[in-house]
Amino acid sequence: MRRLPVYFLIDTSGSMYGEPIQALNNALSGMINTLRADAQALDSLWLSMVTFDREVKEIVSLTELASFQLPEITCPQSGPTHTGQALEMLYEKVQADVIKGNPNQKGDWKPLLFLFTDGKPSDLQLYREMIPKIKSLNFGAIVGCAAGHSANDALLKELTPDVVHLDTADSSTLKQFFKWVSETIEQGNKSQGTGESVALPPPPNEITVVI
Amino acid sequence: MFETKQYIESLLHENNINVLSIRQKLFEEYVNDEFNIEAVKLIKEKQKIMMDKWLLKNKIEDILAKQIIIPNATVGKPYQAILDFNQPDLQDISGFEFENLTQYGLNFDSELKIIEGNPSQSGDFKVKMKFSVLGEEENTEPHEKWLSLVINANPKSLWKNIASDEGKDEDWKANNFWKADNVSDFQPIGDKHIVVASKRGRSHANVGSFRDDDFGFKHYEDNGWSVVCVADGAGSAKLARQGSKIACDAVIEYFTANLNDENLTAFDELLLDHHHKKGEDTQKKISHFVYNNLSKAAFYAHHKIEEFATKAESSLKDFHSTLIFALFKKYDFGYAILTFGVGDCPIGLLNKDLTNIKLMNWLDVGEFGGGTRFITMPEIFNSDKFSTRFGFTLIEDFSYLMLMTDGIYDAKFVVEANLEKLEKWKDFVEDLQGDNEDKVAVSLDASNNEIANQLSTWMDFWSSGNHDDRTLAIIF
Question: What is the domain extent for residue A140?
Answer without folding.
Answer: 4-210
